[in-house]
Every structure is written in C-alpha cells, then in structure tokens.
Amino acid sequence: MVIVANHLLVEWTIYGAFALLLSTRPARDGYLALKPLLDRAAAMVLGALGLKLLIDR
Prior knowledge:
The protein is mainly α. The chain is built from 2 helices and no strands. It has helices spanning about 1-20, 25-55. The protein is flat. This is LysE type translocator. It comes from Roseivivax sediminis.
C-alpha cells in the first residue's frame, strides 16, 4: 500500500509541475516551436522499432 501511495504522490507532483510549467507563455511557445521536430523524431523511433519487429520475425 505504501508503494502505491508513493507512486501516486510522485505522479501527481511531477505531472502537476509539468502542467504548471507548460502553462506559462514562454514554455508553451518553445514547445510549440519544437513540436514538429519532436513529432518527427518520435515517428522515426516508432518506425525503427516496427521495422525491427518485422525484420526479427
């Protein structure tokens, strides 16, 4: 029970901090400027993992 409560507290703290940080104008503008690059990088990683799954079969 202590582990579950600790995990819940950590989740609320970290995600709450991210929400507060990204609610500021400079952070939001910076994220939106980098979003296309981050999306492409994530797509490349997922594509590479999918290709690895196909090749390893």
